[in-house]
Amino acid sequence: MRPLRYSINVTLDGCCDHLAGIAPDEEMHRHSTEIIARADALLFGRVIYEMMEAAWRPSGQSAERPDWMEPFGRTIDAAKKYVVSSKLERVDWNAELVRGDLREAVLRLKDQPGKGLYTGGLRLPLALAAMGLIDEYEFIVHPRIAGRGPTLFAGLPEHLDLKLVDRKEFSSGAVAMRYEPKSPQRA
User: Which of 39, 126, 132, 147 could form a disulfide with 185 if both were Cys (CB 3.0 to 4.6 A apart)?
Assistant: First the structure.
């Protein structure tokens, strides 16, 4: 069974608004590229899918961004994407809609051979965590207090105990901490 990994940027006070963290630099982009490259496919909710598509799907216009961002753009563009949405009628950008029972759909995806799945965002990972389907959590904690904004796992029906399995410090002061669930998954 391939693992489902979750990674998100978060401020010290738990804010997950992508505009509230410290601006990504070359080191952070390299790390994010490595995270996505560890997966065979990406599992996104509608909001994250649309946000990533708007930012990273190649277009006829040349994007005004530094060259060091391009490996991330190429990696996410090439990745197979599964999109959980009841509102979208269709997707493209190497994507497929996921409909029906979320738990069963994700278990089918995890059952396929490969390196793993990656997810991001807030709402979909909350549902996946509540079902015990996430095998690895990575929190990239930025040295900033936002004071407002959406927070991690608001509404999780029961606590989830994790064990630290790795950590990485960045020159920006951010720290990536990788965790696995302490107790076996309910999947």
Answer: 132
